[in-house]
């Protein structure tokens, strides 16, 4: 196992480059299963989750030619024969559950492991399953697997209202509905940029969709979809993480440039809250400049579905608030128990307490370096951020969580002035 060692206090300077979106690349890869010809995806981030999903897809007989260094992947589902997504792989990455919609759509049947809970608590997939039933699938559970089939080999299509709106369920249902016999409507569909970009790929493949980017997504099934070359969009959560990194660790009054990102994908709530901290954002020729103020102002946030404040930036926001002069609150309503980072941040001297589904933060206290444990993807990056501004050395353990969603983070940060390195570390060795 690796750990990251960060010697805090160096200012962040220069520029950071955003990689392709993890949460968009996964549904794009799933969409490739809906056609029997080669699909080439570009701007695919080189991440552990992408490698895991590649393996899930290969189990079906689909060939995948992956060039991680070039961020390119060609999938050919012409040889797809197997309809199973095994537990051993699905348990490593929940989004593997997209295989349900992709296989049901393409093959009329699927056997996909239920993903189980996640690091910070339960994450149901009931809406995905109800959605498949609404499209005409017969579903049963068999030893932890969802076994689904379409009577007559092809789904009929149907209507489903999502409550709450769900990114994953919208994608899964859209995958299945694209090749259905009839029409489908998803009410209260997710409109996150990841979902919209995925729908654009389906449309480029010949899917008939109306209302993309609105709460009512209409899909008229077609007999076949065509191969396509498609470019993935930038990772909006990495973009937001870099903006927060710039605000806390940049030099007041000096710009840090962020390249290849898109601020419009972050949603208004994040951008408004970010500006309220006093940090300036300027955009020119696709480069976003972030200029930290002399003193950061505290801003309360409440997470929400897009364009609300992203739950995936909530842990990072807590670190930003810890650097402000004053008190603030972070209210988490998407995943009310997503606070595994708080006890670790407390160990670093951050004065934050959990009260129900809120975190109260007293800003301005010194942050101290120590050994802390990554517990999930976004929690782990919040510890790295804290380490960048901590006094002394911070050791972030279990960085495999971080590697799921941040491509070469330590290289990017060290290229921008941060003293950070990855070292081999045996967590279970006796301390000498
Ligand atoms: C996706 C993102 C994840 C992000 C989340 C919310 C991917 C791979 N992951 O996860 O990083 O944190 O969106 O923006 O894209 N829900 C149900 N039943 C369901 C499905 C969801 O009740 O069947 C609830 C969830 O518990 C949650 C809300 O719906 O409260 C939104 O979750 P959802 O949008 O589905 O998240 P994911 O797609 O799993």
Could you walk me through the main structural features you see in this protein, from its secondary elements to its overall organization?
- This protein has 432 residues and is an alpha/beta fold.
- It folds into 2 domains: 2-19 and 234-424, UDP-n-acetylglucosamine1-carboxyvinyl-transferase, Chain (Alpha-beta prism), CATH 3.65.10; 22-231, UDP-n-acetylglucosamine1-carboxyvinyl-transferase, Chain (Alpha-beta prism).
- 30% of the residues lie in helices and 24% in strands.
- It contains 14 helices and 24 strands.
- It has helices at residues 22-31, 48-59, 87-90, 98-107, 126-134, 167-177, 193-204, 236-249, 268-276, 314-322, 341-347, 377-388, 400-403, 409-414, and strands spanning 2-7, 15-17, 38-42, 63-67, 72-76, 84-85, 109-113, 138-142, 145-149, 159-161, 183-187, 208-210, 216-220, 229-231, 256-259, 280-284, 287-291, 301-302, 327-331, 351-355, 358-362, 371-373, 393-397, 419-424.
- The strands form 6 sheets. It has a 4-stranded mixed beta sheet. Strands 2-15-17-16 form a 4-stranded mixed beta sheet, with helices on one face.
- The radius of gyration is 22 Å and the shape is globular.
- The two termini are 18 Å apart.
- It binds uridine-diphosphate-N-acetylglucosamine.
- Residues 23, 26, 95, 123-128, 164, 166-169, 190, 194, 311-312, 334-335 line the site of uridine-diphosphate-N-acetylglucosamine.
């Amino acid at each position: 196992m690796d750990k990251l060692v960060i010697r805090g206090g160096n200012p962040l300077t220069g520029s950071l480059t955003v990689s392709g979106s993890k949460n968009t690349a996964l549904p794009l890869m799933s969409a490739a299963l809906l056609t029997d010809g080669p699909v080439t995806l570009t701007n695919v981030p080189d991440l552990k989750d992408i490698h895991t999903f590649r393996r899930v897809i290969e189990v079906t007989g689909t060939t995948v030619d992956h060039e991680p260094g070039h961020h390119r992947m060609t999938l050919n589902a012409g040889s797809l024969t197997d309809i199973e997504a095994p537990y051993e792989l699905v348990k490593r990455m929940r989004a593997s559950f997209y295989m349900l919609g992709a296989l049901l759509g393409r093959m009329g049947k699927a056997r996909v492991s239920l993903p189980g809970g996640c690091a910070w608590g339960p994450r149901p997939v009931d809406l995905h399953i109800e959605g498949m039933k609404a499209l005409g699938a017969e579903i049963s559970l068999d030893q932890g697997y969802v076994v689904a089939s379409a009577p007559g080999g092809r789904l009929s299509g149907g209507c489903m209202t999502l409550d709450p709106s769900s990114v994953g369920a919208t994608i899964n249902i859209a995958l299945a509905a694209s090749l259905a016999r009839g029409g489908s409507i998803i009410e209260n569909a997710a409109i996150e940029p990841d979902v919209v970009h995925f729908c654009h790929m389906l449309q480029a493949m010949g899917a008939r969709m109306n209302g993309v980017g609105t709460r009512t997504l209409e899909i008229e099934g077609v007999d076949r979809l065509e191969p396509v070359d498609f470019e993935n969009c930038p990772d909006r959560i990495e973009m937001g993480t870099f903006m927060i990194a710039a605000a806390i660790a940049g030099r007041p009054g000096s710009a840090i440039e962020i390249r290849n990102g898109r601020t419009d994908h972050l949603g208004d709530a994040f951008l408004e809250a970010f500006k309220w901290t006093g940090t300036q954002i300027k955009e020119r020729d696709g480069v976003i400049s972030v200029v930290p103020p002399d003193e950061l102002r505290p801003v309360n946030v409440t997470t929400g579905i897009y364009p609300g404040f992203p739950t995936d930036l909530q842990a990072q926001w807590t670190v930003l608030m810890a650097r402000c002069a004053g008190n603030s609150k972070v209210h988490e309503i998407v995943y009310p128990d997503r606070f595994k980072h708080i006890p670790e941040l407390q160990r670093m001297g951050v004065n934050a307490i959990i009260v129900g589904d809120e975190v109260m933060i007293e800003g301005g206290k010194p942050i101290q370096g120590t050994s802390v444990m990554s517990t999930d993807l976004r929690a782990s990056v919040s510890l790295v951020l804290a380490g960048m501004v901590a006094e002394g050395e911070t050791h972030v353990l279990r960085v495999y969580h971080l590697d799921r969603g941040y491509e070469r983070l330590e290289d990017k940060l060290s290229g921008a002035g941060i003293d950070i390195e990855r070292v081999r570390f045996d967590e279970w060795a006796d301390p000498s």
